[in-house]
Amino acid sequence: MPLHNVEIAKMLDQTGELLEIQGGNPFRARAYRRAARVVGGLGKSIQTLIAADKDLTELPGIGDDLAAKITAIATTGRFDLLEQLKHELPGDLGDIAALPGVGPKRLKLLYDRLGVRTLDELRRCAAAGRLRDVKGLGGKFEIRLREALQKPAGPSRFRLSVVEDEADALLAFLRDAGGVGAVVAAGSFRRRRETVGDLDILATARDGWKIGDRLIAYENVVKTLAHGPMRTSVELRSGLQVDLRVVPAASLGAALIYFTGSKAHNLALRRLAQRRGWKLNEYGLFDQDHRIAGSTEQAVYRKLGLSYIPSELREDRGEIAAARTHSLPALVSLADIRGDLHVHSNWSDGAVPIAVMAEAARARGYGYIALTDHSQHLAITHGLDVERLSRQTDEIDRLNARREDFTILKGIEVDILTDGTLDLPDSILARLDLVVAAVHSRFDLSAKAQTDRIIRAMDNPHVSIVAHPTGRLIGDRDAYAVDMERLIEAAAGHGCHFEINAEPDRLDLSDLHARAAKAAGVKLAISTDAHSADGLDFMRFGVDQARRGWIEPGDILNTRQLPALRKLLKR
DNA sequence: GCCGTTTTCGGCCCGACTGTTTTCAGTCG
Q1: A93-150 architecture in CATH?
Q2: Half-sphere exposure of residue A100, counting CA atoms within 13 Å on the CB side?
Q3: Closest amino acid to nucleotide B12 (CA–C1')
Q4: Residue A272: how many other CB atoms lie within 10 Å
C-alpha cells in the first residue's frame, strides 16, 4: 500500500525515537528525525517524486541510505528497521518518552532497572514508590512523574487565535511592570503557525528575577514549572505553557532569532555561523569572544550573508538558500488586501444584513466584497434556492446603486453534491459575478471519489473558486481524503482558483498546500467566510498562512483592483 | 546517517534550569 508523506514521516520519526532510546549513535537517530521533518514538510508527495524518477538525495538531510529506505517505505508501506526496533523494544516506550522529564536516559533506567515497558507498569512502579530507589532518579522525579501520569492528556497544541487572545492580555500585563524594556512574543506564535504548543515571550529587563516574579503573579497562572534569573516557565489555567526568557538589550535580535525558531531554522543558521568559524547563540553572533552582531535580527542575518528572513518563513524549507541569493519572496501583507471574496449575510446563516457586512468591509478600507451565501442543499443554513438567490441579486443591485466607491459582488457558496454536480442550475450561476463551490457533505468518500467529485465541480465553467478545499477543522476534524496534487493540477488546467479560508479553525488551504498551488501557477483568494461583521477581522490569519506558504501579492486574487479581479474570475 | 570554499573522515548547536551530583548529567527548547 503506497503511503502519504505524513505517514512516511511518522515512521521515520518513530525510528529516530526508538534509535535514541536504544542508545548508540545519537546522530544517527537525529538523522532519522531530520528526514522525518523534511518529508513531512514537502510540498510534493514522495510518491510523485519517485514516480517521476526524482533523486531523493537532493533533499536536505537525505543521503543514499535514507533515500533507499524512504523509497522502500513509500512503495511497500513497510519499514523493516522500524519493525525490528519495535520487536527489540516492545511496549509503549514512545508514550513514556513523551512524559515531561523523561528523556532517553531516564527511560533506559526505567526500562533496565525496573523493567517498565508500558504506561501501566510505570504507573504501578510510581505508585509503589519504586522510582526513588533507582540511582540517578529520585523523589522529586517520582512526584513529578506521578502528577504527569494522573493528568488527563489535555490539548497539546492550541489554535493560533486562542493563543493570540491569551498573549495580548499577558503581554500587556508584563509590559506594565517597572524596569522592563521590550516584551515580545516569539516562538511558533510569531511564526504564525496554525497551532501553537506553548507561548514564548522574550523580554529585556534590568532584573530577570523580577519580571519572572510578575509572570508568576499573573492571575491565570496555576503552576510554576521553572524560575531562574534568565528564564521562567509557568502553566496557565487553559493548560497553555508560557516560557519567559530575559536577555540584555544588546542581545535582543539574536535572542529573537533563537526564541522565534524554528529549531530547524536555528540549527541551520548555527551551522552557517560555525562554518565561518563563528558561534551563534541567543546572546549574539560571536567571533571568538567578540560580539559581531546581536542587537537586531537584521544585523545577525546580514553578517551571515543573508537577507532578512520574515518569521513566517523560518521553517528550514529553503528560506536560507533563498536568503543567501537574496531571492526571498516579497510576501503578501494585510495592507495588500482590497476585498473579501467569501462573506455571508442573514439571507442564509450569517448574523447580519448584506448592507451591514458591506459597510463593515468598507470601514476596513476594502473596495469590494463578494456576498456568497449558502445554496439550498444546506437546508440547516437556510440556503438559497433559485428564486431567493434571484431576489438577492436584485437587492444587491439596489445597494450598489447607492455607492460609487464600494461594490458588492453577486456570488454564491454553492454546494458540490456527491456526484460533483452543483446545487444550483447553470442558468442562475451564469448571472453571478462569482461562484464559490464547496463540499459540505459526504466527507467519507474515498480519496478517488472525493477528488473526482471536486474536479467535476471545477469542470463547470461558472466555478471561479473552490472554498476550504480540504474541509479540515483544526483540532476537530481531519481533512477528508483527497488527492491535493490532482486538484491543484486540475485547477491549473481549468483556470480555476483556490481559497485560503481565513477562519482560524479552518486555515484551508494550509501553508504547504498554498505553496504547492502557487508552484503550479494556481491563484488564491484569501477569504474570511465571515458570518458577522467581526468575522471580517479573521483576514489576518489567512494572510499569515499565505505568508507561511511563500505567497506574494500577485498570487492573490483579492489584492487586485476590481476590474483586474473581474477578468480573473471569468474563465 | 549526513555532509564538506578548511575535510570523503570526523565532525555533527548551544545554553538555562532542575535535581541529585558532590562538580554535573539530563532534559528542554
Answers
A1: Orthogonal Bundle (1.10)
A2: 15
A3: A27
A4: 16
Residue pointed to by grid coordinates 529549531:
A263
Taking only the tens place, the pLDDT of each residue in A114-169 is 888 888 889 888 888 888 888 888 888 888 888 888 876 656 789 999 999 999 99
Q: Where does CATH 3.30.460.10 sit in chain A? A: 158-246
Buried b (16+ CB within 10 A) or exposed e, A132-162: eebeebeeebbebbbeeeeeeeeeebbbbbb
Where in chain A do CATH 1.10.150.20 domains reside?
93-150
CATH 3.40.50.970, applies to A158-246? no
Specify whether the CB–CB gap between A229 and A241 falls below 8 A: no
Residue nearest to nucleotide B19 (CA to C1'): A140
CATH topology of domain A334-569: TIM Barrel (3.20.20)
Going A511 to A512 to A513 to A518, the CA torsion angle's sign is positive
Asked if A490 and A451 count as a contact pair (C-beta separation under 8 A), the reply is no
Start-end ranges of CATH 3.20.20.140 in chain A? 334-569
In Å, what is the separation between the CA of A141 and the C1' of B18?
A: 10
Reported as a single tens digit per residue, the pLDDT across A225-278 is 999 999 999 999 998 999 999 999 999 999 999 999 999 999 999 989 988 889
A328 CA to B13 C1', in Å?
25
Protein A271 CA to nucleic acid B6 C1', in Å?
A: 15
How far apart CA A229 and CA A233 sit, in angstroms, is 12
Using C1' positions and the CA of A141, the closest nucleotide is B19
- CA-closest candidate to residue A469, choices A456, A479, A457: A479
Q: Is A382 helix (H, G, I), strand (E, B) or coil?
A: coil
Question: Domain A261-324: what homologous superfamily?
Answer: DNA polymerase, thumb domain (3.30.210.10)
Task: State, as a whole number of angstroms, the distance between the CA of A143 and the C1' of B11.
Answer: 40
| Residue among A333, A250, A228 nearest A548 (CA) | A333
C-beta separation of A150 from A119 below 8 A: no
Q: Which nucleotides of B are covered by protein (CB under 7 A)?
A: 1-3, 5-7, 11-21, 25-29
Cα torsion through A529, A534, A540, A545, rounded to 10: -40
CATH architecture assignment, domain A5-88 = Orthogonal Bundle (1.10)
Whole-angstrom Cα Rg for chain A: 26
Using DSSP, state whether A371 is helix, strand or coil: strand
Q: What is the pLDDT of residues A14-51, one digit of tens each?
A: 999 899 888 888 889 999 999 999 998 888 889 989 99
Q: Cis ω on the peptide bond leading into residue A311 (within 30° of 0)?
A: no
**β-pair type (A198-205, A180-185):** antiparallel
* Length A135 CA → B24 C1' (Å): 15
Closest protein residue to B25 (Cα–C1'): A136
